[in-house]
Amino acid sequence: MSPAYPADSVGLVQPFKLLIRQPLALDCGRTLPQHELMVETYGQLNAARSNAILICHALSGDHHVAGYHEGSKKPGWWDNCVGPGKPIDTDRFFVVALNNLGGCRGSTGPNTINPETGKPWGPDFPLVTARDWVRSQALLADELGIARWAAIIGGSLGGMQVMQWTIEFPERVRHACVIAAAPKISAQNIAFNEIARQAILSDPEFHGGHFYEQGVVPARGLKLARMLGHITYLSDEAMRAKFGRELKTAEPSYNFDVEFEVESYLRYQGQSFVDRFDANTYLIMTKALDYFDPAREYGNDLAAAFRRATAKFLVVAFSSDWRFSPQRSREIVKALVDAGRDVSYALIDSQLGHDDFLMPIPQYHRVLRGYLARVAQEIA
Q1: What is the mean pLDDT of residues 259-273?
Q2: 162 in a structural domain
Q3: Number of domains composing the chain
Q4: Fewer CB within 10 Å: C terminus or N terminus of the chain?
Q5: Is 354 a catalytic residue?
Q6: In this UniProt entry, which residues are annotated as the site Important for acyl-CoA specificity (predicted)?
Q7: Domain for residue 3, yes or no?
Q8: Once rounded to an integer, what is the mean pLDDT over residues 265-271?
């Protein structure tokens, strides 16, 4: 007997792997002769092929955006937002989600086999950029027969890919939804990423990235990296409200075991991440985040970069997000205005922090629903 899924769920979904046979030249100077992408789709592509939406994932995301996999009770990472009648309405749109090149959830990446060696790519996998991802995604669109996206949507690092799309392939994007993102990350954010990378690189089990052959995982380093990252995703207010300074026991134990509730939470988050993510992929993803700066090739003038864009934009920020603060979103908006682009901006009152872009906040959902209703009307 098959399980009953919520009425507003896309239900049981089956990911598929798509082979891109066209060579992909990367920003680092190397070329991949071919690569595979793990993909999920929801809804139906209309006869005009005009109702397709691409979802770009953030640092630790993947292709499983909505619905359920066989045998799993946990839905996709943005299930609250994607489905029948939801803000990204699969009754109206054909939604495409993928695991980016270099990922660890089925797409060609460090934990897949290098055909030249017959061994996992490991540290030999090339460093990739947001522009490389966009070019790979464009090849995916070609394979699916999608000449122009009705909208491309992404949060955090996903939002950076959305911006890159509008600059790299302006004629292929009708609407761009940039959520909780920045035009480039700050020195402080680069510093956080470097500490996370050093935690992994200095783990004795990392073996220079060749830990697969050793049958081990650099769990300590990856766990520390995730714990550090998770602190930056949450606001101080959210951590105080959720954990306070609560001890797990009545009195201090005067040792270095877990004593505070927040310590227990972070260790759990770190360990669960070790069980589902690849250390080499984490290094690649954080470097791509550091490298993102589309204005660099335009005299450090973001408005000049956006003058290439023809899409209409929705930019969304969250009041409690200190990692990619509302000020950074306003920089994007100002550059778009200076470039003469069509842009709408929404600041969502929030509590959690950077992770709010994943949450079903009513105001946030109303903004997305209203904007995408306009998109649907344009293509009707």
Answers
A1: 80
A2: yes
A3: 2
A4: N
A5: yes
A6: 323
A7: no
A8: 83
